[in-house]
Amino acid sequence: MHYVQAKGILSAQNGMNIYRGCTHGCIYCDSRSLCYNFTHPFEDIEVKENAPELLERALKTKRRRCMIGTGAMSDPYMHLEEQLRLTRRCLQIIDRYGFGAAVQTKSARILQDIDLLDSINQKAKAVVQMTMTTFDEDLCRVLEPNVSTTFQRYEALKQFQMREIPTVVWISPILPFINDSLENLKGILDYCVDAGVKGVIFFGMGVTLREGDREYFYAALDKHFPGMKEQYIRSFHNAYECPSPNEKELTRYAEKICSEKGILCRPEDCFQFMRELPEKYEQMNLFS
Fold this sequence. Notes:
The protein is 43% helix and 14% strand. It is built from 12 helices and 11 strands. Strand 6, helix 4 (114-123) and strand 7 (126-132) form a beta-alpha-beta unit. The chain starts with a strand and ends with a helix.
């Protein structure tokens, strides 16, 4: 890893990435794509060591409370967070200033901050987003080798359920010919139902590949799934979107289960939920 002094931390949509790069080793990771203009190896994590100071400065000047998001590009709970605790320091600032937080991760390491997320949720709102890719634990260790398994993520979701902290699951990606079975989707959705998730997000049933990401993914296919790369090339050529041939069946099933169980599944509904602060909280701030 290496340290940098960032010039800013919040995007126009109030998102932040404290780290840049990742050590989870997911074979399909879009963040490896060349369009993101990495100037250092992806596993050599760029650490924005002044992120807490930048965040505090930004929140001090905001007129209205809002949700602060993190984890869209780089997981805030990769291995180095155990030592650096920059994510925790940022959550402490969010908590102190009365803002909400929406955190996206694949790691059960987020449980080390469940106390802070609970406090934020009591004062404003906290949403935990957990990505789930495959129900099969052995396959999970191949696709996502250096991160919590799907079962461990499910157990983490149950801990947040006990604290009444809302959760959203990203079912992504669904890899054609690898994890695009109804059995896999059913297993993940069973976890979601049992953990009482508020929403499930999926953008079709497939994977996206572009320059940088595609080459890394294909190398992993050659290593773990001999002959699969050639099947991808025949099926998708150099397309950005690579939908599963089972996409319609899987989508119908996911929508059916979510409808029956009262789980949000339209992306726009999930995003709206994660952006909004409770009305009572907004009213309270008018008089604070």
